[in-house]
Write a structure and sequence with these properties.
This protein is mostly helical. The chain is elongated and about 55 Å long.
Length: 176
């Protein structure tokens, strides 16, 4: 399929797009939170994929998906920076919350957590998604976003505290 994509075969490109669309859309949506922004970034990302597919080097199973994912993440970050959507708070304010929550969390609805993450400030959301969901290290995040490692750590801690606070409010009052 890659060879056909390199030759510009639109059927192969369509198949590759359809194979990866759903996962990459969800990735964009987690980073950007807005449906229209995610769609725009996907168009740019897959345009980049198809124009650079000659450079792709097969490195084992899932290497193509990882390569596409890297492009999608980088495009999402570029989009956020270009639209001045990311702000990072350098100072970490002390809070009494312990982010190693050990209570029974069986009452938590995954959709509720997703909506909390989606509504977080962009800096928190981006670092949280890259670290907790995509598995990037703070060093990798700092390189990707052009921030200090400590800023990445601070944003992650704030994101976790934000999620815990919103979940506590949901449990206490029934609404996030």
């Amino acid at each position: 399929m890659i060879e056909h994509c390199i030759r510009g075969n639109q059927l192969a490109q369509s198949r590759l797009f359809n194979m990866h669309y759903h996962r990459m859309y969800n990735l964009c949506r987690r980073i950007l939170s807005d449906h229209h922004d995610a769609e725009d970034v996907l168009v740019v990302s897959f345009t980049r994929v198809f124009s650079n597919i000659r450079r792709f080097e097969y490195r084992g199973e899932n290497s193509l998906e990882k390569w596409i994912k890297t492009i999608v993440i980088n495009e999402s970050i570029r989009f956020s920076k270009a639209n001045n959507r990311i702000r990072y708070e350098e100072e970490l304010t002390e809070n009494n919350h312990d982010t190693s929550y050990n209570e029974d969390l069986s009452w938590i609805d995954a959709d509720k957590v997703y909506s909390i993450i989606e509504e977080m400030p962009a800096g928190y959301r981006m670092v949280f998604n890259l670290f907790a969901l995509e598995g990037y290290s703070h060093k990798e995040i700092s390189d990707l976003l052009g921030i200090a490692e400590n800023t990445s750590k601070s944003q992650l801690r704030k994101a976790r505290m934000h999620i815990i606070e919103r979940l506590e409010k949901t449990q206490q009052y029934g609404t996030p």
